[in-house]
Amino acid sequence: MNRTPSARPISAGVIGVGSMGENHARVYGELRSVDLACVSDDDDEVAQRVAREYDTDAVAFDTVLERCDVVTVAVPTSVHYDVVSKCLDAGVHVLVEKPIAETVEEGRALAEQAADAGLVLQVGHIERFNPAVQTVTELIDDLEVISLEAERLGPPLERTSLGNVVSDLMVHDIDIVRAILGGQPDAMTAMGTDDGQYTTATLQYDDVVASLTASRVTQKKVRRLTVTARECLLEVDYLQQSVLIHRNSYPEYVVDDGKRRYRHESVIERPRVDNGEPLRHELEAFLEAVRTDSEPVVTAEDGIAALETVQTISALVDEETPKREVQAR
Fold first, then answer.
1. What would the DSSP string read from start to end of 212-272?
2. 233-237 and 222-229 beta bridge pairing
3. How far is CA 282 from CA 8, 122, 126, 259, in A?
4. How do strand 121-124 and strand 145-153 relate by DSSP bridges?
5. What is the DSSP string of 124-158?
6. Which residues 6+ apart lie within 8 Å of 65 measured at CB?
7. Is residue 142 part of a domain?
8. Is residue 285 domain-resident?
9. Is the pTM of this model over 0.70?
10. What is the number of domains present in the chain?
11. Coil, helix or strand at residue 108
């Protein structure tokens, strides 16, 4: 049964309160017209600590489904399907952290289940809600895009329970490129080094090419997107939430004190970016879709498409298929 609330506050819960799930609990607790009803985790000690921190209850999974209108599911990917499916069975709207499921088939089954139940199923591709990305998305409609280049680099992490670098990091840029260009790529190539911890991929969309790099072995944290268009060059810094537009770039030779020298100049614009926490924007959009019974910004179909591309790129960098090109679906 669909328990979409009307005038009363939305009752929210978080299933899985590791580092990401705890942040969801924090933001739910900060939002107006939302009651953080409870949290749940297989590790009861962790659940109790988070519950104390955000003034709510630590409860069993079944109790979350009884108390809540909406939930965030931030459990390991291997159990996404089972947990999300049970939430949907209970009539609860779901925001599931990326990826939507472990396999494309599971993702499609969840999408069908949510549609049949009339429930919102949003996938947590958080960079869609980065204010800098939202600014660029508005600008790009008026541009003739030639190429995109994304870099998502960083040093090794202490955490050991990480997916491969494509599913854990590059997936964000796969989703952003798809949101900008629309549809799935026509073809892909990819390769990796250092056991796949540094991976590059090239995605072909008609006459536009997207180059993606993800790394866990780079000793500097970089989150950057560059869009080359005929009219200008856009530079996006995800971390700084900033956008630069380079226009009218031209080279020239000038005479200075009798000496001839070369210079290259361009006009740089800095459009206004309404900075804010992407997670807050993401949860606000999710709750708005629930309140208005509308399609979420990041749909289950978006999550499935990103997962399909992740799996293709992962296969390309696997030891059994090095440097091999495959045609995308």
1. EEEESS-SS-EEEEEEEESS-EEEEETTTTEEEEEEEEEEEEEEETTEEEEEEEEEEE---
2. antiparallel
3. 21, 10, 6, 56
4. unpaired
5. E-GGGG-HHHHHHHHHHTTS-EEEEEEEEE-PPPS
6. 71, 86, 87, 90, 92
7. yes
8. no
9. yes
10. 2
11. helix
User: Which residues of the chain register pLDDT less than 70?
Assistant: 1-7, 158-163, 249-266, 319-329
Q: Are residue 315 and residue 202 in the same domain, yes or no?
A: yes
Residue 124 β-bridge partners:
97
Residue 165 phi, psi dihedral angles, 5° rounding: -65, -25
Per residue in 143-155, pLDDT (tens digit) is 999 999 999 999 8
Summary count for the chain: helices (H), strands (E): 10, 15
25/110 same-domain check: yes
Query: Is the same domain home to 173 and 106?
Result: no
Q: Which domain holds residue 155?
A: 128-276+309-327
Distance CA 275, CA 259 (A): 46
β-bridge mates for residue 192, sequence order: 199
